[in-house]
Every structure is written in structure tokens, then in C-alpha cells.
Amino acid sequence: MEEINTNGTEIEQDNYHKGYYRIEPCKWHNSPPLVNALKSIAEENVATFGFPGHNRGQAAPFPLVELIGETTYRHDILEVDNLSTPQGPILEAQKQAAQVFGASKTWFLVGGTTCGIHAAIMGVCNPGDTLILPRNCHKSAISAMVLSGVIPKYIFPDYDFHWDIPTVVSPSQVQKAIKELQYQGLKPGAVFITSPTYQGLCSNIKEISALCHLHNIPLIVDEAHGAHFGFHPSLPLSALQQGADVVAQSTHKVLFSLAQSSMLHVSPNNIADKDKINRCLQTLQTTSPSSLLLASLDAVTATLKNNPSSFFDNAINLAVEAKNKIEQIPGITVFDFPSAHDPLRLTVGVYDLGLSGYEADDFLFNDQKVISELPGSRSITLSFPPRTCKEHVDRLILGFNNLSSSFIHHQKNKEINHVGFRFSFEPWNDINMKLSPREAFFAKKKQVDIKDAIGKICGELICPYPPGIPITNPGEVISEIIIEILLKFKADGAKVIGASDPLLSSMLICDV
Ligand SMILES: Cc1ncc(COP(=O)(O)O)c(C=O)c1O
Q: Which residues form the Orn/Lys/Arg decarboxylases family 1 pyridoxal-P attachment site domain (predicted)?
């Protein structure tokens, strides 16, 4: 029997688990291989003189043991296989994941989708290449350009001013970007699309991938929020099913692996260079990956292997029920997107109550201990995970009912009501890039008063998190509008990250 190794070439199965990890293949080879391997290794009566120093839980520090027990530590074992050059249970688990997710090759990631995006962009593009990508990409795409020396050619996705959210990238926007580069005698190294967005809105990946392939350009998709796509008839098709070449997914978001664990997939199209992506991952990932994180990815694969759609039935039904009930509540509006979107995401507008999403988020937490996924200026976005519980949905609906009755007659901030109150322009409509992300990242920096930063080249990436979409990027000229947006986010109560001065009274600029 033959297997695919990390370089995508075939190797003999006999070479691949010759007892290298001292555990008989028969003990782990069945699904889920990594979970089985951890179980077998943990059960052995061994005398350990290695790492981790908690000594399979013997020396686990009490405060955490008291909280989570010793079992977790007992299975925190490093010698199960090698993530960088897997030959045993990790290789087998990745192979099974590739089958389940429809990839020709899958890598397990312990640095989140952030690491997958870094490896995808570094692995597909070369330094100096141009990358077509939406300006509302996650910050990891910007840091990938710092690492790789790739130059952005931004697409500005359609902006919904009423809801104050960016929406999707259209095939014609991609076409236009490719053409504009062609006029300059350039061919992009890749096209990069974020789909779905944080609000669950999907770009037409099928058409975009056909367009990219017509021009022989690889398509990378940030599918951080769509790892569950394709596993239920009511869910959109996955990016791989629609022809994307390299896809990074946060398995730990809607799916159910441990936080920080993600997957990077390559399609059977064979446009992307698997060996190069593999070398990038060997450069980017730790040499001591947590076997618990990896096993949690393996457990997801095993769960999705059998009758996956039944796993999502109740969450989809409850999300529909919640939508129908919440949209009846006075002063509350539910976002309806006309094209493909995730039925497990619900974006609820509270602007008619004169509230911001941040204020509504605080209210729901204080009133019903409801935790939303993404508060925004005019709405909150909720994610319905598999096995969503009816009692929680009832609390959510009750919370919105209470919110409505508390504010419908005495709106707090009347001006939030006005369409376009927040911005009457797209937040990024005047981007002016003077230095590439990499040049700006390594340029000499200077801290200046925020008012003096206007007109200067930005030296830092600042964004509200979530969603992690940069407001300022290193290398872009800081405009008055950008400062206004940043300060507004802060005043609204958004968690703003990345700023050298968290108070935003000063900013880092490039001293060039
Ligand atoms: C669109 C998008 N891409 C990528 C990421 C990064 O994913 P991770 O947190 O798994 O590194 C996120 C995280 O929120 C995201 O929202």
C-alpha cells in the first residue's frame, strides 16, 4: 500500500511507521490515528527522562491540575510523531483529513489559520510578486506580505453603509485587478480572497477560481470562518469544492478542535507547489507542537467522516428559529444577504434602538450572560456552533426582547439611527501606499502625536479585534479619515490591538 508523504510524493507504507515512534501501527492506524496513538503512549508504563518537564502530569502545577485535571497533562506528549516531517500518526491523520475535506494534501497547524495564511502566501508567491487581495483581509495576510516581500494590489469590496460592514469581492473586481496589472506588464503571483467574511458572507469562489485558472493564477482562500462548509446541504460549498487551490481554515472556529488548531489544504488542481508550502510550514511552525491540539484536529476529522450533516441539523434549525423570532422584535433588524452566506451566522442590527453593537453586546451579557462573537458599530454577529442548545437560544431571544423593551422608547444615541452616521465613505477609499508592507515594517520608526501623524507613512498595523481587519497598515499614508475611524472605534468600545500607544494619543510612523 502506498501513502502520500509531506512532499506530496508517494512512499512505501513500510518505511513510514517502522516503529520509529516505538508504537505499533496496529495500535493507532485506525481512525482517529493521532487520538489512538496518544491513548496507547499514555497507557504505557514508562520511565520518562525527557520533555515536557511536567513528566506526564507528575509535576503538573497544582493550580491548573485543580482546574482541568491530570489527564490533559498525561496526554501532552511530544514523541508521538514529528509535525515537520511526519511519518507516523500525524501523517496518517493528515491523510485522513485530506480525504474528508477533499484536498490532495492537508497540513495540521498549531499556529491557527494565521500560520496557514503565512505559509500559503509565502509558498505560492515569490518576493516582489504582486498579490491581489481585498483590503478587508485579516491582519495575517498583511504580516504574510511582510514575511514574503509580496506587494499588495488591493480590491475594495462592496461596502454596506447601512450596516457598516464590508461585504464580498465580485469576480468582476478580480478581473479588473488582473487587467490593471496586465496594463503594467505584471501578472499577480496569486489572488487571495477572504470567504466567508466574519459575518458569513461568501464571494463567488467558483467564478473567481475559474477566472484565476483562465489566467493560470493560483487562488488562495482564507476560509477561516468556513471550515464547516460542504458538510451539510444547507451550508455553502467549501472553497476546495469550488476550485480554490490553497485553503486555510480555522478548524477551531465553527468546527470543534481546540483553539489555535487549524488546517491548510491544497486542492487536487496541482497549481500550487506543495513542496514549497511544506518548506514554509517547516520554517513557520514550532518544533514542539502540542499533541493535544493536533489530536483535536484528528478528532474533528473522525467526527466528520460519518454522517456529518446530522451534526449540523440542530444548529441550522435553531439559527433559523432565532432569526425568525429576533426579526419580529421591535427596533431590531436581522441582516439579510441576497447571495450565498452561512446560515449559522446571524448579524442583528440594533441601530433603530439608538444603540451600538458594543452597547447591545454588554446589555446581552449583563442581562442573560449571552456572549456574542462580533460586536460592531451598528450590529452584533452571532455564531451558532454545532450542538447549539435550545435553552441558550431562548436566552438570546429573551435578551433581545429585553433590550428592545428597555430602549425602544428612550433611544440612547439618536444619531446612530442615521444611515451612514458612522461613515459616509468606505473606510479605505483613499488608500495611498508609499512603502510596501515589508519595507515599512523594517523602516526606522518614530512616535508622533496622533494629529501630527496625518500625511505621514504609517509604521504599525492597528485593528479592532475581532474582526482583525487592519484600519492602518504599515506603509500606507495616514489620512484624517483613518484617524477619525480609529478614534471612533476606540470611543465605541471596540478592542483595538496592535497600537504601540494603546491610548491612541500617539502613533508610530516610518521615519524615512
Ligand atoms: C477572516 C480571518 N482570517 C484569518 C483569521 C486568523 O485565524 P486564527 O485565529 O485561526 O489564526 C481570522 C481570525 O479571526 C479571521 O477572522
A: 32-336
Q: How confident is the model at residue 4 (pLDDT cuts 50, 70, 90)?
A: very low
The mean pLDDT value of the chain amounts to 92
Ligand 1 centre from 263 Cα, in Å? Answer: 12
Grid cell of 97 as nine digits: 483529513
- Contacts with 354 (C-beta within 8 Å, 6 or more apart), sequence order: 407, 411, 412, 413, 414, 416, 417
Q: Which domains does the chain have, with CATH numbers?
A: 2-74 (no CATH), 89-305 (3.40.640.10), 308-416 (3.90.1150.10), 437-510 (3.90.105.10)
Residue 413 pLDDT greater than 70, yes or no = no
Helix or strand (DSSP H, E) at 3: strand 2-4
Is the pLDDT at 461 greater than 80? The verdict is: yes
Question: What pLDDT does residue 79 have?
Answer: 85
353 CA → ligand 1 middle, Å: 31
> Is residue 226 within 6 Å of ligand 1 at its C-beta?
no
As given in the structure block, the three cell numbers for residue 109 are 497547524
CA–centroid distance, 224 to ligand 1, in Å, is: 5
Please report which confidence band the pLDDT of residue 1 belongs to, taking 50, 70 and 90 as the band edges: very low
CA distance 222 to 468: 13
Residue 281 pLDDT exceeds 50: yes
Residue 224 Cβ inside 6 Å of ligand 1? The answer reads yes
Mutate to test the pocket of ligand 1, among 140, 247, 261, 461 (most ligand atoms within 8 A of CB): 140
Give residue for cell 505559509.
119
Positive or negative CA dihedral for 112, 243, 270, 256?
positive
Kindly state the average pLDDT of the residues 141-157.
97
The H-or-E segment that residue 152 falls in is strand 151-155
Counting from 1 in the atom list of ligand 1, the atom nearest the Cα of 117 is 4
Question: Which of 250, 258, 469 best tests ligand 1's pocket when mutated (most atoms within 8 Å of CB)?
Answer: 250
92 lines ligand 1 (CB under 6 A): no
Give the mean model confidence (pLDDT) for residues 363-375.
97
Rounded CA separation 401/492 (Å) = 23
Which atom of ligand 1 lies nearest, measured to the CA of 260?
10
163 near 378, Cβ under 8 Å? Answer: yes
HEC profile for 211-223? Answer: HHHHCCCCEEEEC
Q: How confident is the model at residue 496 (pLDDT cuts 50, 70, 90)?
A: very high
Alpha carbon distances (Å) from 154 to 169, 180, 192, 442: 11, 11, 10, 21
Q: Which of 438, 475, 460 is nearest to 149 (CA)?
A: 438
The three grid cell numbers given for residue 409, joined into one nine-digit string: 422608547
Determine whether the shortest distance from the Cβ of 60 to ligand 1 is under 6 A. no
Nearest C-alpha neighbor of 131 from the set 405, 445, 438: 438
pLDDT (tens digit, 9 = 90+) per residue, 232-260?
999 999 999 999 999 999 999 999 999 99
Strand, helix or coil at 292? helix
